[in-house]
Amino acid sequence: MGLFIAQLLTGLANAGALFMVASGLSLIFGVTRIVNFAHGSFYMLGAYVGYTLIQVLPGVVGFWGAILLAGLAVGLIGMLVEILVLRPVYRAPELFQLVATFGVILVIQDLALMTWGPEDLLGPRSPGLVGVVRIMGEPVPKYDIALLVITPFVALALWYLMTQTRVGVLVRAATQDREMVGALGVNQAWLFTGVFALGCGLAGLGGALQLPKGGADLMMDFNILTAVFVVVVIGGMGSLPGAYLAAVIISVLNVFGVTYIPQSTLVLMFIVMVLVLMIRPYGLFGREEVAGEHGQVGEPERPIKPAGLQVRLLVAAGVAALAALPLYGSGFMQVLTTDILIFCLFAASLHFLLGLGGLVSFGHAAYFGGGAYVAGLLVKHAGTPMELAFILAPLGAGLGAFIIGWVCLRLTGVYFAMLTLAFAQLLWSLVFQWGEFTGGDDGILGLWPAKWLSGTTPYFYFTLVFSVGGVLFLRHVAHSPFGYALRAARDSERQAEATGINTRRVRMLAFSFAGFMAGLAGGLFVFSKGSIFPNELEITRSFDALIVVFLGGVKTLSGGIVGAAFFKGVEDVLTRFEYWRLAMGLLIIGVVILAPDGIVGTLRKWAERLGVLKRAEDES
Amino acid sequence: MKRKTFLKGMIGAAALAAMPLSAAAQDPIKIGEINHYKRMAAFAEPYRNGIELALEQVNENGGVMGRPLEFIFRDDQGEPGEAIKIAEELMTRDGAVMLTGSILSNVGLAISSLAAQRGYVYLASEPLADSLVWESGNDYTFRLRTSTYMQAAMLAEEAAKTDATTFATIAPNYAYGKDAVSAFKENLLRLKPEAEFVAEQWPALFKIDAGAEVQALERSKPDAIYNVTFGPDLGKFVREGTDRGLFEGRQVFGLLSGEPEYLDPLGAEAPEGWIVTGYPWYDLKEGAAGAFVSAYQERWDDYPRLGSIVGYMTVQSIAAALEKAGSTETDAIREAFKDLTLDTPMGEITYRGIDHQSTMGAYVGTLALRDDKGVMVDWVYKDGADYLPSDEEVSKLRPAD
């Protein structure tokens, strides 16, 4: 019994920091509709700033003052980020802002490294709260008790702010219908800024509060991110009580999981998340998302049309130039181009889903890495010839996408995105943990192409054929009746249904098809690298694809490819410099602000303005 | 450009023009070094400093085969796929004669797979995975650092000497953690068949729930604990474990816990009494080991970490191999590495012909506090050669070469 109580207390104490970070993310999303990828970075900043302040401020008062000040400071930083980075892009297509927050992650990583150095910092102890108290004979750290007390107070304060004050009324109103709030004369811009700062401040507070139980290190930002997403989704996006309950559930379950099924540490919370979303598709306390409720942000999408002769000639010339690369480019140029082509195909497959289907997948790496693993496992365990394994890679990925899509497509919007993320993480955990079969983190080695393809140049041509072929095929499908049906389902589900389109089936097909194409890219990838590791299934890989699709331009057909080529090319150059993450982050933010329609979309607009291209409205 | 630098440049240019040396004699020998300089900056920077110190010494003494030795440092973001691309660039465009680097095992394994395919020599300096030289070993890959198996075997030997019979383990839930636990078990059970493992905890890497792990370990009431957690996980584990009295009356064995990279962040909370593998630079005053420490401190105004000595020995190994090969051809370098013997700050090491593992050892000692800092006391240096499986076992582990 004593142990049980002690475990419960440990879980509740762990829930503290998690709740604060998650509630901040939830608030920000509820009001601004921004999925703040950088939320983990604010948590990390909170820990670092808190650490520094505690060194300066002495005693008990100093300690708690430092923690509060850390929250305030991070809130201020958040405010700056909102004003400088996010405000210019609120009019951009939905979810575009997450690209900007991704840039913020990179910038903060390098700035933190420059400021606090590379070494992990062990968190200072809380004065007066060192050691344990015995509860029914079991030791419970005093600081855990403090956290147990503080967390409900913070939650209550937030609850009071949201329900009993005028600011709270406005925030809630904005959560429900921000256009209306704007129409009633409330200054939305400052409301958004305020909420963003509050959310970031909470993350910073969470980071500072966990110091006596941990410390500050440079990997904190990504390490907490998935857990926070899970908590927010289980609780229901935008719901504070939901976030609290979910943080408690996850933390307590985790403590019991550690004790009774020690191997479960990677997968437990994702299983909980999938289960909750199966039963309550909008989380415990979330509201159903009604399509169009928040209004279509940005200008309406243009109809797509087959490329004209000029564009076709241009593309043909480009492909010809690529095909001639071995004549004028070095061996390494071919290796680099192979990498870029593979990534372009991967991005194009996500773009198909995102741009044409309106289905935001946060877990697209599952199919890229999944395809690669299908090929790798076949070669390793069944001795499958490379050619056959390569063909089976997209089929396996497509089948996986079909199954996952069947489950996820019950949901829409951000919940759909989060569920795809959960499945991708589950797959990653499976591969990471099941060492006997998948090789775990040590991966699968020696996966080289067949003899006739083994040189750099033959494999370059092999990739060229499949990548360009794949991209052209994706484009072709976009113009087929199926592509029209998919866009119809995206733009107006009801009207599409009324015209006899089975929107669910169309989406299922699109999801599987995109998975298939990502798997093809994965198959190309695995034989170009000769080995495969769980990294290719990680959340960062999904983010990479997402970022380049937005950077290139969601609402253009070629956005995915252009974004991918741009991103990979720049990355190859920038990583040669010391502070490349800072440069990369600033570059991404710069592109986001200067080109809110993505690179292709914005170039097209400029071209139209200059009269190089005909305006869309002139053509009809 | 500062005026001084400019002048130096002018003098340099003039000197170059004046010297009638042939270009070939001046051409540096380039080595491609791939690492996670950003993602694991705390480890990669001391490693790089060790390399640069060694390079300066080698080049002051006339370089290798009369040519200066040069390293090209590249960041792979900790991604195996990126590392492969960079390796190709280093070898095909930048004119590197061989590859080295990596801390993460997966990146090391990826490069080794490429090395075998393309015929590049790769010296895996820091990655620990046993499979690098055994299950996935190949003709072109060599490894310097004391492997997971060797360090676990050293601790198992110490564990067998104690009275403890019931053991609990805690290790991060991934390949390295699993290798470290199974090697410890294997060696301990060989030396002490009555030993019993009563709990195995597997926290997620860098996401440890330390309170819960400590409760779970306490519940199994072991005589001794074998710890493989490191980095931020170690700090949290030590703090919760100390607070909750987990370590009272129990012997703890900590793999790598004595390396300055992991020990120093713990500060005054370093857990006294743990038996660990590590690097006690503070007590190394004499001989080659001491000379390295003082040269490093003089050069960098900082103390060496384990990575520093590994970086230093990496350069020494490569220089020795190149001298022995007498050529920069891949096959010659590869042959030279086999059974290569050289003197290092840690004593004489040999790259074993049988599995390409060097016999670099490790310091094993007990943690204590000195001036509010964790240090290793009563340490001994254990030669790696004594902690490897027998030759028959190794040849069984290593598939047909």
Give keywords:
heterodimer, A: 620 residues, ABC transporter involved in vitamin B12 uptake, BtuC, two-stranded antiparallel sheet, globular, B: 401 residues, alpha/beta, Rossmann fold, 2 domains
CATH top level of the largest domain in chain B?
Alpha Beta
SS strand fraction of chain A: under 5%
Instruction: Return the average pLDDT of chain A rounded to an integer.
Output: 90
Please report the total strand number of chain A as a whole number.
4
Give, in spatial order, the strands making up the sheet with the most strands of chain A: 1-4
Largest interface, chains and sizes: A-B, 73 and 64 residues
Order of helices and strands of chain B: HHEHEHEHEEHEHEHEHEHEHHHEEEEH
Number of strand elements of chain B: 14
Strand line-up in the sheet with most strands of chain B: 7-6-8-9-10-13-14
Protein name (chain B): ABC transporter substrate-binding protein
Organism (chain A): Lutimaribacter degradans
Protein name (chain A): ABC transporter permease
Structure description:
- The complex is a heterodimer of chains A (620) and B (401).
- Chain A is mostly helical.
- Chain A folds into two domains: 2-279, ABC transporter involved in vitamin B12 uptake, BtuC; 331-538, no CATH class.
- In chain A, 72% of the residues lie in helices and 2% in strands.
- Chain A is built from 27 helices and four strands.
- Chain A has a two-stranded antiparallel ribbon. A two-stranded antiparallel ribbon of chain A has the order 2-3.
- In chain A, a hairpin with a 2-residue loop joins strand 2 (132-135) and strand 3 (138-141).
- Chain A is globular and about 75 Å long.
- Chain B has helices at residues 3-18, 23-26, 41-60, 80-92, 105-118, 148-161, 175-191, 210-219, 232-243, 260-263, 287-300, 306-325, 330-337, 391-397; strands spanning 29-35, 69-75, 98-101, 122-124, 141-143, 166-170, 196-201, 224-227, 251-258, 275-278, 341-344, 347-350, 362-370, 373-382.
- Chain B has a seven-stranded mixed β-sheet, sandwiched between helices.
- Chain B has 401 residues and is α/β, with parallel strands linked by helices.
- Helices cover 43% and strands 19% of the residues of chain B.
- Chain B folds into two domains: 3-147 and 286-360, Rossmann fold, CATH 3.40.50.2300; 149-280 and 362-391, 3-Layer(aba) Sandwich (Rossmann fold), CATH 3.40.50.2300.
- Chains A and B meet through helix 1, helix 4, strand 1, strand 3 and helix 9 of A and helix 3, helix 4, helix 5, helix 7 and strand 7 of B.
- Chain B: It comes from Lutimaribacter degradans.
- Chain B: This is ABC transporter substrate-binding protein.
- Chain A: This is ABC transporter permease.
